[in-house]
Amino acid sequence: MNKADHVINAVILSIGVGVLLAPGMNQSPYSAIILVGVPIVIGALFPDIDTEFGTHRETFHNIVTLAVFIAFPIYFENLFFVWIGILTHYVLDLLGTKGGLALFYPVTKHVSVPVGVNVDSSLARLVTLAVTAFELGVVWLLVEYGYGSLLRAPGVWNLFTSTF
Ligand SMILES: [Zn+2]
């Protein structure tokens, strides 16, 4: 996806996640949106740094980058939600490009899905909004069924390390 779609996805996701997590975090919805939104937007913009440094959709579009951003909050007690931005960037690039991304870099073989649309497609914005809605649905389900803590870095780290 292009930068505008990543920003639109991150901002809507931030508002939704903030509102959904606010009660559990004892925050007003407004402060919760800032608390989760700043890290999510930072995470959503980070991977495309590899357009300038490294190889695009390889160097910073992979499992290792995601792991670093899940581990960072645990070591530095900061940016607990930044990994959500990284992950949603990958999802949008999987569905919003034809070429996919090198999820298992330095193995440079790109992972892609057959239903992806091209970045320049007129459907790209629609795909972005559909992905965002789907992601918010997942977040809503997690919160509704008491798994909201998985969205914060230590929770997802345990899940991630038991998967990989
Ligand atoms: Zn990207």
From TrEMBL:
<feature type="transmembrane region" description="Helical">
    <location>
        <begin position="7"/>
        <end position="24"/>
    </location>
</feature>
<dbReference type="InterPro" id="IPR007404">
    <property type="entry name" value="YdjM-like"/>
</dbReference>
<dbReference type="GO" id="GO:0016787">
    <property type="term" value="F:hydrolase activity"/>
</dbReference>
<dbReference type="Pfam" id="PF04307">
    <property type="entry name" value="YdjM"/>
</dbReference>
<keyword id="KW-0812">Transmembrane</keyword>
<keyword id="KW-0378">Hydrolase</keyword>
<feature type="transmembrane region" description="Helical">
    <location>
        <begin position="126"/>
        <end position="143"/>
    </location>
</feature>
<keyword id="KW-0472">Membrane</keyword>
<keyword id="KW-1133">Transmembrane helix</keyword>
<feature type="transmembrane region" description="Helical">
    <location>
        <begin position="30"/>
        <end position="47"/>
    </location>
</feature>
<protein>
    <submittedName>
        <fullName>Metal-dependent hydrolase</fullName>
    </submittedName>
</protein>
